[in-house]
Write the structure tokens for this entry.
Amino acid sequence: MKPELRLAPWALVLLGIAVLYVPSLVDATRNAESADDIINSLFVLGLSGTFLYLRVRSLLLAGTFGQHPARIGGGLLLAIGLLFYLLGRSQQLPTFEFGSVIPVLAGIVAIFFGFRTLGRLWAVLFLLLFLIPLPPSVAADITQPVKLAVSAATEWLLHGFGYPIARDGAVLAIGQYQLLVADACSGLRSLFTLEALGLMYVTYLGHTSALRNTLLGLLIIPVSFTANTLRVVTLTLITYYFGDGAGQGFLHNFAGMTLFMSALLLIVGIEAGMTRIAHWHEQRKGTPKSPTP
Amino acid sequence: MNNISSLKAGLYIRRLPALLVMVAMLGTAIAAYALTLPRQGDVALPDLEVLVPKHFGEWSETPSLQLQASLATQNREATNRDQPYDAVLLRNYVSRDGALIMLAVAYSGEQRQDVKIHRPEVCYPAQGFQLLQQRDFVLPVAGLSAPISGVQLLARNRQRLEAVSYWIRIGNAYPHNGWAMRAEILRAGISGQLSDGILVRVSSLIDDESQAPAAYAQQQRFLADLVPAVTPRAPGLLVAVPAG
């Protein structure tokens, strides 16, 4: 007979996790460069939580959520995670501080349920990767060229439509106004969120085709770039017609949200299209395969 | 049999390991808190305006005619990270024979991984400059135990071509790139020190690239005059203090 679930031990574990990461989250929120960062991170966090719940539930239902504690191996993993945390938190290295969450959680799962169960939860932990802030120098190396490309695309597009626009690096001049395309506008954060969402989406759909999943993952990059260019174009036009204040205020966030949603829809659309092509392909080959749910 | 409760039973964990896991995490959190260097309160900041003389050697201050490149990467919505300096000095000097040099000094009382000096090779491109050249230089100055080690840049934007020489001192080191800077801050941090940091940057406008070597040579003379003029008043401000 299986023992009853008791809540007290779980409360202890959750308390430990909270003691580690609640201060980190509070500090990160306080130091965040923009509200976008916070929203994106909360989004991924909520996504990971939901995903964890769904995944654990389906494993329990399938009876594959094992109880084979790996105390030593799991303990080792936890210790490595805690070491990363210690270094990251005391030396202000957010990459280590938040990166530690993956070995810490993996260690806890292994300690209580074993490595096989941990393996079945890999997708959840993988999702958490998107929460880890990149080291600023690496982020700058990625952000800078994307920012310039977004600015150049905006200039090219609006110039094509006959607007009086000029560009100097990441500074756009339209009419009497000047706009600085900020780091956030490169969309690195929202790209991460989109990737995380896309990953969860394909896992949820249960596609087994690695080719299709990789393709979708890669397509998110140009989709995100396009969405961000459209966002900068929108903001540039808002500034041109309604002035500086309009471009920085509510409409700024509104444009961000709208384009995030449209990128999301585009991805779902691409996925649906790919499924259809796959079906068509299979039918032509005449291989009777059950369609994906 | 109740299906839900049997499902939940799969999540059963033992109390003792849970307690140990919690203690390990709590201990780590406390250790991390203890090892975090406290933010410094009000520390006496160097008055750069006074410490850097307006006349030294063959150089004297001249009213600013040119707008200097900003010291940070962004000028809107200044946050801690974008304006990491406690004291900033921007000045133009002219030599007896009429050569103009722009000096920018930025001091920060504490260098941290998240708030640290901006490197010119990052903030020039952010302001629309293109870097044409980048190389290291070493400047021996009489009376210093170790030569100063810095970086020369050639930067162009639509309006101008700039020859730039600069060094960044963090604690007693002259890191040449972002990674070296991080490593130095980490090294100091682990040994429980909080380093101060300073950026000393000079730049000259030139008409074409062939004038760059002459501009760099002139900048080296300027810096070689500047350091002995400041160091007696503020040892360890512009340059590393001799060890021991």
Q: What stands out?
A: The helical segments of chain B are 3-9, 15-35, 48-51, 120-126, 178-190, 212-230. The longest helix of chain B spans residues 15-35.
